[in-house]
Specification:
HIT family, subunit A, 5 strands, 31% helix, 5-stranded antiparallel β-sheet, alpha+beta
């Protein structure tokens, strides 16, 4: 073909192209069709019955509570969960939605005060297909961000550098949390 390759016959799976890919097979646990916990083995239902220190709970409200993520994306990564075992945001009551929102706002204020973060990633993965690690219990992520927190350390060394221990982060956030 006059020096021009026919890509339809020579391209094969795994051949290089102009797309850069970061392969993260360890994330399959979040997308594969594995067992999702029910109410009897839900880590968020269990956490709400443990002591604040043991469960890394930062603050408790009437219908929802705030705890640290055991596998944080960043230092101070918090989760806001309703006590009630519901899986989707539209299944939460108006009271739960309002308290999740209020706790999220307070978590942001406290994290800025205690940790000096400059921004946040906030979100919910709804259902296993959307990447929820625990799809059976609604939870909102609050991830503090700093201008210098992104680097290639997790990619190259498969390690996330977190400057504080979870217990220390919980203690500082809980101590700064406003009490009614």
């Amino acid at each position: 073909m006059d020096g021009v390759e026919d890509l339809s016959t020579t391209a094969a799976v795994g051949d290089p192209d102009d797309m850069q890919r970061l392969w993260v097979p360890h994330r399959m646990v979040y997308v594969a069709d594995h067992h999702q916990p029910d109410h009897s083995d839900c880590p968020f239902c269990e956490a709400s019955h443990r002591s604040d220190e043991d469960a890394l709970i930062v603050a408790r409200g009437k219908t929802a509570y705030v705890l640290l993520n055991l596998f944080p994306y960043n230092n101070g990564h918090m989760l806001v969960c309703p006590y009630r075992h519901v899986s989707l945001y539209d299944e939460a009551t108006d009271e739960e939605v309002a308290e999740i929102a209020a706790l999220t706002q307070t978590a942001m204020r406290v994290a800025r005060e205690v940790m000096g973060c400059q921004g946040f990633n906030i979100g919910m993965n709804q259902g296993a297909i959307a990447g929820a690690g625990v799809a059976s219990h609604l939870h909102q992520h609050i991830v503090p961000r700093w201008s210098s927190d992104a680097n290639f350390f997790p990619i190259i060394a498969k390690t996330k550098a977190l400057p504080q221990l979870l217990g220390d982060v919980r203690a500082s956030l809980a101590a700064a949390w406003p009490h009614p």
